Amino acid sequence: MKKLYGTVVPIITPFTNEDKIDVESLENLTEYIIGGGLQCLYPCGTTGEMLLLNLDERKLVVETVLKKTAGRIPVFAQVGAMTLRDTVELAVHAVSAGADGIGVVTPSYFKLSDDGLVDYYTAVAASVPEDFPVYLYAIPQNAVNDINLSVAERIAASCKNVVGIKYSRPDITRIQEFMTINQGKFSVLVGPDHLFHAVCAIGGDGTVSGNAMILREHYESLWRAIQSDNNKVSAKIQRRTNVLNQILCRKNNISAYKAVLCNEGIIRTPRMRAPMESLSESEAAMLVAELKKMHYKEVLL
Predict the structure, then answer these.
(1) How far apart are CA 90 and CA 134, in angstroms?
(2) Nearest CA to 288 among 243, 257, 242, 252?
(3) For FRET with 15, which of 172, 182, 194, 277 sits at 20 to 30 Å CA-CA?
(4) Residue 165: φ, ψ to 5°
(5) From residue 10, how far is each of 62, 168, 195, 261, 280 by CA, in Å?
(6) What is the pLDDT of residue 251?
(7) What is the full DSSP assignment across the chain?
């Protein structure tokens, strides 16, 4: 079964001024990311404001990205939702739409036991073909529920199509623990992309990075350096991306991505889905000016 590696891009969801999915901008952004040499697209993740989209909108986003990608790089749809029923519906849709796999964020807001999490993921994995790749996704700082080693081991043991995890808490110890699952064959992707180089150095497979939409050149170069075992170069690029990422994440990173992409003409509006807040015009101008001052398009070695 297909597994993810390198830089997986959790693509933003562009909106029109009428608060509809901006299909044309989404197509432009998909092409822009593929042209940057990045390894995978991940629509409807946290960066895609997924819990603020209805099911039809989420299906439209996934279908649009898949059609524009046309098999050039993998597309894994994030299908986790507020209910098991909705999650299963989105998982089944991802299969029928032609996605290469799915990511499934933990249920949010309500705290679940370990057994509850195992039951949830077992049900989702059973709703798709047994050879269709499924990634667990934990972001406990947002979703309340976490995934520990025991839970991940139990799910992987009973669900052969659960091939890995995206873990978004910067806990190196737990990240390394996940790497022991299935005799070391369990795929581990890190959410905090300041750990990209470090996690790959200890056996991880890559990062899921929204910042990569803005810093395509850096993430493409960083992945090439990691693949070449050029630790000196990869460490240097990692340090520079960390500085640039801090600028992007100073307020709301998703609104920052949209502001920069709109300034570059990739998407038409920087609109966020309410109640999420867009940057003001002055905030967006200051952000773009600061990034330009840092020559953010240049990989400086």
Answers:
(1) 13
(2) 257
(3) 194
(4) -145, 145
(5) 12, 13, 17, 14, 23
(6) 83
(7) -----EEEE-----B-TTSSB-HHHHHHHHHHHHHTT-SEE-TTSGGGTGGGS-HHHHHHHHHHHHHHHTTSS-BEEE---SSHHHHHHHHHHHHHHT-SEEEEEPP-SS---HHHHHHHHHHHHHTS-TTS-EEEEE-HHHHS----HHHHHHHHHH-TTEEEEEE-S--HHHHHHHTTTTTTT-EEEESSGGGHHHHHHTT--EEE-SGGGT-HHHHHHHHHHHHTT-HHHHHHHHHHHHHHHHHHTSS-HHHHHHHHHHHTTSSS--PPPTTSPPPPHHHHHHHHHHHHHTTTT----
How confident is the model over 239-255, as a mean pLDDT? 94
Tens of pLDDT, residues 152-195? 999 999 999 999 999 999 999 999 999 999 999 999 999 999 99
Place of tokens 């990173």: 253
Q: What does the block give as tokens for 117?
A: 């999490």
Burial 164-187 (b: 16+ CB within 10 A, else e): bbbbbbebeebbebbbebbeeebb
Hey, what are 169's tokens? 């808490």
Q: Rounded to two decimals, what is the model's pTM?
A: 0.96
Q: Which tens digits make up the pLDDT trace of 277-286?
A: 999 999 999 9
The rounded distance, in Å, linking the Cα atoms of 276 and 263 is 20
